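Notebook entry, structure prediction.
Reason for the run: the old model in the group folder had no record of what sequence produced it. Starting over properly, with the input documented here first.
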Amino acid sequence: MAADKLAGLLRAAEVARDRRAAWVGISLASVALLTALLALSSHGGGHLWNSWRAHRLQSPRLQPPQMPWRPLLTAEERDQGVAHYGGGARLRSVAAKLLAGQPIKAYAVGGSVTYGHGVEDPSLAYPSLFFRHINVSFPHRAWRVPARREAGVSRRAITAAGHRDGAVGRGGAVSAPTAFSRPPCGTGGHVLSNRGLPGSTSGITAPCVHGMVAADADLVVVEFSTNDSPAGWTSGGKHGFEALLRTLLALPGRPAVVLLHHYAWWKAAGDGRSAGLYYREPEVQLETFALYYDLPSLSLKAATWRLMEAGVEGFKVDGVLSRGSRDGVTGEPIPAAAPRRASSYLYLDTIHPGPNGHQVLAELLAGLLGRAVSEVAGGRTPAARWHPRLQGLPPPMIPNFPDSRASLCIQLEAFRGVVRHQRGFSYSPEKPLLPRFEEQKWGWSAEQPGAWLELEVDTRQPRGQPQARRTEVQLGHLRSNFNMGTALVKCAAGCRCRPSVLGGTSASRATVFRAHAFQVSQHARCRLRVTVRQQPGMVPEEGHKVMLAAVAVTHQLGD
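New structure, fully documented this time:
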C-alpha cells in the first residue's frame, strides 16, 4: 500500500516539470548574471559586484525544487542527517552544472541496500528515488528509470581496471571494453547509474571501481557502513575503504564523493542493548575518513534515531515488514508488521530498509544536493586557500597505507571461466531463490575437506606504470557465521607466493564478500590452487564450506 502510494506521488510529480523548469531558468539566469559580475569585478567593476551582492543578500532566497514525493523527514531532520558538509566545493560544481542546464554523471556504489533490497519495485530503491529527483528537478529527456526486466546487469563482467564505463542501470558488474559499448539511455542526458552489488564490501569494490564508475563522473554516492568490518584502523578492510575513496577522488572528473551511512537498528547490539546501539561501528570509523578528506556525509542514524526510539509513525522499529527475522542477541522472533501497518515501519528485516527507509536515504541525498544548489544560486563563490603543497590529495590517513593500482578485476559470471581445473567444487548460487543473477551470489563452492580448484590470472604490471614494489592477488570469498570453513592457498605454477590460509568464518550474521590478499610474483599465467582444509577457522563452525566469487590483481607503488 505504501509503495503504491509513493509510486502515485512520483507519477504526479512529473506534472510539475514545467514549474521546476521555470525555476531552473531563473537560477540559470542568476548564474549567468553572477558570471558576468565576476568578470566585471576582475576588470575594475568591483563596486558593481559589491552593490549587487549586498542587494542579493537582502533579496528573498531562491528555494530549491521540492522532492517529487511527500517527504517523511522535516527540513530540520534532513539537516540533522548531514554528519559532515565541509567545504562543499565539488558538490557545488555539480550544482553549477545542473543550474547551467548541463547533464551530469552520477553513480551509487555499495552493497545490498544500494542494490535495492528492501523494496520489491526497483524504482523505489533510494538510488532510483534520488536519481528521479535529479531528473525531475533538472530534466534531461535521455534519462529514464530502468524497467524491472532491465534491472539486472550484463553477466559478461570482466575488466582490466581503468577501461570503459559500464551500462546504466542497476547492478554492480564490472564491464569489459566490449561488454557495454552503447551510450547509457541515449545521448546527451544524465547518466544516473546504480552500481550496488549485494554482499559487496569496499575492499572488494576498490580494485574494480574503474570499471564501474566513469572517469568523468560528477557525483558518486558510497554506501558501505553496513557491510564493512568494524575491525581496527590498520586492517585490510580500512585499507580497502581508503583505497576506494582515493581512487574516486583522483578520477579526472573530480567527482563529489558523498558517504551515505545506512544504520541497521536490529544489528546495532552491544553494551547491554540487543538493538539500537547508537555508536555501533563502523560508521564512526568511516565518518573519520569524511572529516579527513572533507567529504559530505549523511547518516540515517543521525536523522532518525530519536524518531525510531520514540516509535514515531513511519519510523517504528518494534517490528519489521518481513516474517522470520530474529533478534541477533536473544534469538527471539521479531514481530512482523501487519500489511495495513506497513507504512508505519522503517525496516524490511534486521538489515535492509523498507520503502520508508529507502525514501529517507533518498531525502537525505536530495537535501544535500539542494543545499549546494541554493549556495550556487545564492552567489556563493569558491574561496579555497591556494598553496602549491595543498594541491592534489592529502597523504593517506592510515600510516603505511599501500597505495596501489589494479590491473585486473574479474567477478560475477566472468569468474566462472577463470577456473582451469577443479575437483569437488561447483559453480552455483548461494541464494538461488532470489530473482536476479547478481543477488543470487554465484561462485565456486565446495563443502568437503580436500576439494580443490586451480585458477589462472595474469599478475604482470601494465606497461608504462612505475615499478611496483609489491604485487598482490585478492581473492573475493564469502564470509558468514554458518557452515563456513577455511582453505589453503598456494601458487601452483608460473608465479611464486607463500602459502596462506583463507578464512570464511565470522561471528557476524551478515553474509558478505571479503578479500583474501597475498603477495605474488608477476607472471603472465599465474596459477593458484585453493584447497578446502579440515581445520576450522577463528570462529569454529560445523561445516567446511569455501566459496570464491572474484579475483583482482593490484600493484603497490611508491618506496
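Summary: The longest helix spans residues 17-42.
The old model has been moved to the deprecated folder.
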